[in-house]
Amino acid sequence: MTVGELLDRTFFLYRSHFGLFLGIAALPNLITLAFQLSRVVIEPGSTGFLFELMWVPVALLVYLVTIAVSQGATVIAVSQIQLGRATSISEAFAAIRPRIGELSMITLGMGIMIAVGFVLLVVPGIVLSMMWALTIPVAVLEDRGLRESLARSSELTRGHRWRVFLIYVLIIVLIYIVSLLVQGPLMIALTVLSGPLHPARLPVVARVAIPVAGFVTQSILSPIMTIALSLVYYDERVRKEAFDLEHMMQQMDRTAGTPSPAA
User: Fold this and answer.
1) What are the distances in angstroms from CA 13 to CA 10, 26, 163, 164, 201?
2) Which residues of 91-111 are buried (b: 16+ CB within 10 A; e: fewer)?
3) Distance of alpha carbon 60 from alpha carbon 63, whole angstroms
4) pLDDT for res 258
5) CB burial class (10 A; 0-12, 13-18, 19+) of residue 37?
6) Which residues of 130-145 are buried (b: 16+ CB within 10 A; e: fewer)?
């Protein structure tokens, strides 16, 4: 598929199975939302340095688990749809449940290395992001660890990383615009009602509204990138490994092995 066809297929799947992908994204993000709202009861600036220091790794852990669960389950859902199989939110979550910890560590390890690349004059971070764009689909669908998933993603994207880069840019721009349209009016309203947005001066209503708006935006928009990268994974396998022929042969073998119904 061309970039245009990949994007068209991405939004077709997203629209056709909106409830499925929304549910997969929203349920894990409820954990993050609950974690964020738990701070509403704490007055800004009232906690000590030690509390704030402990809060950071806990927040990181919650974020990693949320990302691992939502992306992993989304990859499963896209895979099932692509292979012509029925699926559901519960089945997608059940498929990745045993590997949530491993997927979280893969996300963390990849994120750290890409972050280091961005610190090194940005360009290495962009290159690594394109090389490892298919790491999560590989880890989920091929049951591989961090090192194997990174190497496999680098192999699959070789020669076509410009396509991955273009898809990243177009989807990120779209997500940014939609996020502004959703959250912009809220921020303007809070600024008018509360003055400049400073945590120490925000009323409780505002401190609740901001994470809730973020939750809504994240739940609606976050599946799009994962759907696109899952489709790129299959497209690269078709291009380089004739995956479509392999799958067709498996289907034929399965059909041939099915006993004929009695007359």
Assistant:
1) 5, 17, 19, 18, 43
2) ebbebbeebbebbbebbbbbe
3) 5
4) 45
5) middle
6) bbbbbbbbbbbbeebe
**Is residue 210 classed as helix, strand or coil in its secondary structure?**
helix
Each residue's pLDDT tens digit, 126-153 = 888 889 999 999 999 988 888 999 999 9
Cβ pair 171, 224 in contact under 8 A: yes
Amino acid 13 reads L
- 89's tokens: 């939110």
Q: What does the domain layout of the chain look like in residue ranges? A: 3-98+161-245
pLDDT, mean over the chain: 81
Q: How confident is the model at residue 32 (pLDDT cuts 50, 70, 90)?
A: confident
What is the number of other CB atoms lying within 10 angstroms of the CB of residue 222? 23
Packing angle of the helix pair 204-241, 135-142 (nearest 10 deg): 70
